[in-house]
From TrEMBL:
Pfam families: ADH_N, ADH_zinc_N. The lineage of its organism: Eukaryota, Fungi, Dikarya, Ascomycota, Pezizomycotina. This is alcohol dehydrogenase. It comes from the Eukaryota. It comes from Zalerion maritima. The keyword Signal does not apply.
Length: 349
């Protein structure tokens, strides 16, 4: 019952737009599974990929998408531990070599041979997507596929970032870009992990959403006269948050973070604005003992843990469902910074 053709969104040239059209359904290789994607979250990374924002080329033509939740419909002959009919997710890390020193130590996102869904291989903006069986996300049957799809990139990434920050329950963490897709999930994971979140983003709609998702306070960067002072003032002792999770798609907040992070605190860089650089004063970084580091998606264990938080009902971030055919409109809203939370596309429409 697997069709020969399917609907997909295809980027035919860098810069876009994406084109909604019928393309052939591929067959899984020996170590791969074919997933009938039901829903796929739309990540800002998909827009970066289409626009060619990063110093790493995509495949062309490209089917984007890396938050695909669906049902396993076929598997290669080497696949023994993923069953037909199970729920599974296509995530950013589509596959890795599993034998280099990074893979051996469960740092598989750092693998030099990593395959990236919706970037170096076709992703989840199609009805049938392929992924390496070793890397597909295992989704429990009781989970709603539309609601869980954003966990497959946004959830895993922010959960990993919060762990990498070293922030402990009871401490304060600033979430920069809290009103976006990753940010809305970061607020929910922070809360579930016992952290107090200071949300930073722009506009009243995002402010309301952040408060509803459990943020203790909201700093509106678009109206604040002094973001650094306002973020510090949002901690009880005025000394600033213990950690900063920087998810914004602009350079300035990456420079600001080290100014308001608490001494001995950690700045976690996750957002990937085009052509951006980190800059922090050496003097302050030294005498305030600040750590600045990057965090890149998560490994298979992080994936399972992030999904388990969701399964337990701890992660309820807002999302809007539209048809896969409307993806280009979602990208336009995203480019304008008008999305509070996440858009999810339904591949049947
Ligand atoms: O593994 C990784 N490191 C990883 C994984 C997934 C995504 C990195 N990312 C990257 C994406 O490629 C993108 O660059 O994280 C970034 C955020 O992705 P997203 O959450 O999907 O984007 P969004 O929904 O557009 O949210 C971005 C938010 O940032 C706010 C915007 O208002 C928006 O709500 N923002 C901006 I632009 N400037 C800001 C500022 N100065 C700001 N918020 C606070 N201060
Ligand atoms: Zn993503």
């Amino acid at each position: 019952q697997i069709p020969a053709e399917q609907w997909a969104q295809v980027v035919e040239k860098t810069g876009g737009p994406c084109v909604y059209k019928k393309i052939p359904v591929q067959k899984p290789g020996p170590d791969e599974v074919l997933i009938n994607v039901k829903y796929s979250g739309v990540c800002h990374t998909d827009l970066h990929a289409m626009m060619g924002d990063w110093p790493l080329a995509t495949k062309i033509p490209l089917v984007g998408g890396h938050e695909g939740a669906g049902v396993v419909v076929a598997r290669g002959e080497l696949v023994k531990d993923v069953e037909i009919g199970e729920y599974a997710g296509v995530k950013w890390l589509n596959g890795s070599c599993l034998s280099c020193s990074f893979c051996q130590q469960s740092d598989e996102p750092l693998c030099g041979q990593a395959l990236l869904s919706g970037y170096t291989v076709d992703g989840s903006f199609q009805q049938y997507a392929i992924a390496k069986a070793a890397h597909v996300a295992r989704i429990p049957k009781e989970c709603d596929l539309a609601a869980i799809s954003p966990v497959l990139c946004a959830g895993i990434t922010v959960y990993k970032g919060l762990k990498e920050s070293g922030a402990r329950p009871g401490q304060y963490v600033a979430i920069v870009g809290a009103g976006g897709g990753l940010g809305s999930l970061a607020l929910q994971y922070a809360k579930a992990m016992g952290l107090h979140a200071i949300a930073i983003d722009g506009g009243a709609e995002k402010g309301e959403m952040c408060k509803a998702l459990g943020a203790q306070s909201f700093v509106d960067f678009s109206v604040s006269k002094d973001v650094v002072a306002d973020v510090k003032a949002a901690t009880p002792d005025g000394l600033g948050p213990h950690a900063v999770i920087c998810l914004a798609v602009s350079e300035k907040p990456f420079q600001q973070a080290s100014q308001y992070v608490r001494s001995r605190g950690t700045v976690i860089c996750i957002g990937l604005p085009a052509n951006a650089f980190l800059k922090a004063p050496v003097f302050d970084t030294v005498i305030r003992m600040i750590t600045i580091k990057g965090s890149y998606v998560g490994n298979r264990q992080d994936t399972a843990e992030a999904i388990e938080f969701f399964r337990q009902g701890l992660i309820k971030a807002p999302f809007k469902v539209v048809g896969l055919s409307q993806l280009q409109e979602v990208f336009e809203l995203m480019h304008a910074g008008k999305i509070a939370g996440r858009y999810v596309v339904d591949t049947a429409k």
